[in-house]
Design goal:
Chain A is of the alpha+beta class. Chain A is built from 13 helices and nine strands.
């Protein structure tokens, strides 16, 4: 896994890219996954959830992950036809074993199970072990919101990159927390955040732009701030949210640990802080996830809840901005805007990533379905041209 | 509520203080609350939970709150003999009405109810409306951990002080999140954090020390960073965790909003972002809380969970520190250390706060029970002398 940093998707930032309709990307991924040996339904789900992340503008968790998934499958770390098993179950809880496959399908099934149990009981939680990367956590939280419930989704990561406050050794992955809640007229509130200050992808973006990193994003193995993005990408030592002790990075560290407890310790998955020391290259990464759903109707009139969610969202958006041209956003707003744009105009794919996908497709005997769409594309809008 | 900033407890930082045994402080508070008209059991619970915060070193949420509670009761904002009512209930959920009293007793009852339900069902959540400040959120999360469960506690705040990313208007209180999980040989993991970068108390500490604030703690109403602590205390505009947009303050903002949704929108309490605009000085503040408990036994062997929690905690503590003399801590460690010290040596109370407590006691005809302990005290240890 030494080449992970080089496999993160290119951030759009040049006009050297194509725009591909979502359906084409899904077909391309589905064909590749089928060639890898995934059953049709699993290939469909995985491709759909990956492209759903891209549609929402979360490029770091969509098709840009394919090169890493390819590396994992070539190393024999992914089960292509996993059996998802229910290990424990009650009316309001369950523990699933994802069977060693990619986490998207297991994640969707686990949240669907939580939603079904929540519909019956008002509250439910489902943990998953023996999984892998599941894409964008927000997609699972949103499933609950679309069912009218509050949704929570967390995941740990097999590889530690986040360093505790006072430390100089990575003990956690970027351990995401996603939380969604339904409104009536607005799209759901949807927070989807890594518990690190920034994700690895942001280091890469700074590198592409030739910018120094702000102090507090990344450190070296002596704990000193790193400003050089290339060096920071090589070292892969991220700070927890807060960035520095003075700015309360112990809180981001605590949140990362909370996610590890919910996702890995509760489910019996591999705990990054322990696993790396015992066996940095195990046959399976045994990633863990946690999903919960809460029915507002268990607590109050759910229609009143949704109406008040609208008032809350509207009040936040209407609150006084520092710059009138940059209004206050609500978690989920940037993703909703990206979705509208990309649904219509296609998903921007850097030519470098497109070439990698093409190479991966060729290696498993799959045709190039992206360019064949005859959608060569160019800069999406003037803002992003160099 | 204009004088809140001046009512935050003095931070220990000078030797101008006394050390008071916990039992004495409890007796003092209990006598005051009884004189205010609280039933004996309620006065006992409230005093016990306030002093429990002080014992754990969380001075900002213990007896230092008494002057503010006094202000609230004199303004007629607190119900002294509240009836706590169960408004909705299922085997795994409940909504309580706290009856307008201080939140400690309602919080303890709500978490106890969540624990009872969790014991029967493996999972439970209880929301509370019509409450007030409940002290240190961590105490409620710890109740779950002491019962062998994972515990979550959140609260909103009646008065907004935290400004969303891009904004210059406060929309949230410091909206705490507490999360605890039991180990076997170690004290429970216990994260107890405000979702702002720092609490108001830290501004005061900087002011006492004559230090400039780091950029990113507080802003003025144009959104510019404030470095002058006196000015920052007057303006009361805090940043969300992250501090600046560049350092991902949108994540702290999202977490604050998540806490508001769980604590206020779900329970039907007053939403700070809406309430301030409608009626900044309502007859009751109608604060909301949210409590949840998860039984590890619903997911895996609970003994294995506890053992692995120990390994996890030990691995974090043993991870390489930047400064060998400042080892990596685990959330809860500073509080456990404070508790050991203060259990033995008493709770440090600044003479200024002691004088305020004495005045509050005198105003309701209660004797001074603090000094009468004959425990004049002095600096607790050399480190903290000026």
């Amino acid at each position: 896994m030494t080449s992970q940093a080089s496999l993160v998707a290119e951030a759009p930032g040049s006009d050297d890219r194509i725009e591909v309709p979502a359906a084409r990307l899904r077909a391309q991924l589905q064909a590749i996954f089928t060639a890898w040996g995934m059953p049709a339904a699993l290939a469909e789900t995985t491709a759909r959830l990956m492209v759903a992340a891209d549609l929402r503008g979360i490029d770091s968790h969509g098709i840009g992950m394919l090169p890493l998934y390819d590396e994992l499958q070539r190393a024999g770390k992914l089960t292509m036809a996993p059996e998802i098993a229910t290990l424990r179950e009650s009316p309001v809880t369950a523990l699933l074993d994802a069977g060693g496959g990619l986490g998207h399908d297991a994640g969707e099934r686990a949240m669907r199970l939580a939603i079904d149990k929540c519909r019956a009981s008002g509250l439910a939680a489902v943990a998953v072990r023996n999984s892998n990367h599941f894409g964008a956590a927000g997609l699972y939280a949103l499933m609950a919101a679309e069912a009218g419930f509050i949704g929570l989704a967390t995941s740990n990561v097999w590889k530690a990159a986040v360093v505790p406050t006072r430390g100089r050794e990575p003990m956690f992955g970027t351990n995401p927390i996603a939380f969604a809640a339904p409104a009536r007229r607005n799209p759901p509130f949807c927070l989807d955040m890594a518990t690190s200050t920034v994700a690895i992808g942001k280091l890469r973006l700074a590198w592409l732009d030739g910018r120094e990193l702000p102090e507090g994003w990344a450190i070296d193995d002596e704990g000193r701030p790193l400003r050089d993005p290339a060096e920071a990408m090589a070292q892969r030592l991220l700070t927890p949210l807060g960035g520095t002790a003075e700015m309360s990075s112990h809180k981001g560290y605590g949140l990362a640990a909370m996610v590890e407890i919910l996702s890995a310790l509760l489910s019996g998955a591999r705990v990054a802080a322990l696993g790396d020391a015992r066996d940095p290259d195990p046959p399976r990464y045994n990633v863990g996830h946690f999903f919960a759903a809460i029915d507002p109707a268990a607590f109050r009139d759910p229609e009143a809840f949704r109406d008040e969610m609208d008032e809350f969202i509207n009040a936040l958006r209407a609150s006084r901005p520092v710059e009138p041209e940059s209004p206050v956003l609500v978690p989920g707003d940037p993703e909703t805007a990206a979705e509208a744009e990309r649904d219509a105009g296609g998903i921007p794919v850097s030519r470098k990533l497109a070439a990698m996908i093409r190479e991966i497709a060729a290696a498993c005997g799959v045709a190039d379905l992206m360019e064949s769409a005859g959608h060569p594309g160019g800069p999406r809008d003037g803002k992003e041209a160099p």
